[in-house]
Specification:
The protein is of the alpha+beta class. It is built from four helices and 13 strands. The chain has a seven-stranded mixed β-barrel with strand order 1-8-7-11-10-9-13. Strands 4-3-12 form a three-stranded antiparallel β-sheet, with no helix packed on it. The chain is globular and about 50 Å long. The two termini are 18 Å apart.
Length: 202
């Protein structure tokens, strides 16, 4: 019986595949605020981006981890935030504004040419020319903090409306969070090669 169940499940496994994209921009949060600024390259160590606000082996839990008391020290799987220009354009359209810039969201990496970037599964590996490798942890859920920053930067007439609208329209378009599996340097304009693992519904 167990063998039959395994065979049935095996038919639903989606094979691993490979994709390529382009690094459209790299960004770093060098201050105390999450907003980033464009740079020419990102130097990655095992703790994340050197000098970035979100660098570190560990981080403090927040609203995304209700199973822990807020402020609990935990592993930092959110060392980098990745977004896609095409998805940000969809968000901007839904918010009736000209654009949503990666910096406003605190993004570290903008990847172009990857269809449905935000839907990449956990465990996806992203390889860069220097040998740097990122591993995708999960989708990045849109929050009111980012919505507030968009409302400020886009000069939305009703900031609170923009703050509340962003989490609704940006769901599954907000990008990904990832951590450094192998150190190296990521430069704007280079090729990113992705390996998407086997997928299945448990």
């Amino acid at each position: 019986m167990q063998h039959v169940l395994f065979e049935d499940a095996a038919r639903k496994i989606i094979p691993a595949r490979k994709l390529e994209g382009t690094v459209a921009g790299v960004y770093r949060a060098g201050g105390a605020h999450f907003e980033t600024e464009a740079v020419d390259e990102l130097v990655l160590g095992f703790e994340g981006i050197a000098g970035d606000l979100h660098a570190g082996w560990t981080r403090r839990s927040g609203s995304r981890e209700p199973w822990y008391k807020r402020g609990t020290e935990m592993r930092n799987e959110r060392q980098l935030t990745l977004v896609a220009p095409s998805e940000l354009a969809l968000v901007a359209s839904a918010m009736a504004i000209r654009s949503v810039e990666p910096e406003w969201l605190g993004a570290n990496l903008s990847l172009d040419g990857i269809p449905h970037l935000s839907m990449l599964p956990s465990g996806t590996l992203i390889f860069f020319e220097s040998g740097a490798t990122l591993k995708v942890d999960a989708q990045n859920g849109p929050c009111r903090d980012a919505g507030r920053q968009i409302a400020l930067r886009a000069r939305i007439d009703d900031p609170q409306k923009g703050e509340l609208l962003f989490p609704r329209v940006a769901k599954r378009l907000r990008g990904l969070v990832a951590w450094v599996e192998r150190p190296g340097t990521i430069r704007r304009g280079e090729t990113a090669k992705l390996r998407i693992p086997e997928q299945w519904i448990y």
